[in-house]
Amino acid sequence: MKGKELRRSLAVLPIGTVMKLTSLTARQIRYYEAQGLVLPQRNDGNRRMYSLNDIDRLLEIKDYLDDGVNVAGIKAIYEQREQAEAARKRATQRPLTDADVRQILQDEFIRQGGLGHTQDGMEQHRPL
Length: 128
Known about the structure:
Elements: H1 3-8, E1 13-14, H2 15-22, H3 26-34, E2 41-42, E3 48-50, H4 52-66, H5 71-92, H6 98-113
């Protein structure tokens, strides 16, 4: 996680500050928490503490509600986003196939041993 994102995810804001920043009531914020739309952290005294990312989420929820989307619709939107993000992560973290490993090994042998160089200095790839 990058430094900026790490700072945005630090839960340091109490609910009173969140209420001022979002123009939401404590009851609304707690309701969105009960619905699983926002998940604040708790401090040692069991007080809710919010991050800047939580503030962004609450403002986004408020915008959706202003646009006429109900809470169930907002949940569906966030579930779709999470599924898409999970699918994207799976796609970028696919395991190496045997062919991938062979190609990496072949390229490394060629690079280390100079096996692929011709007299004119151009690389020539030969299957192992």
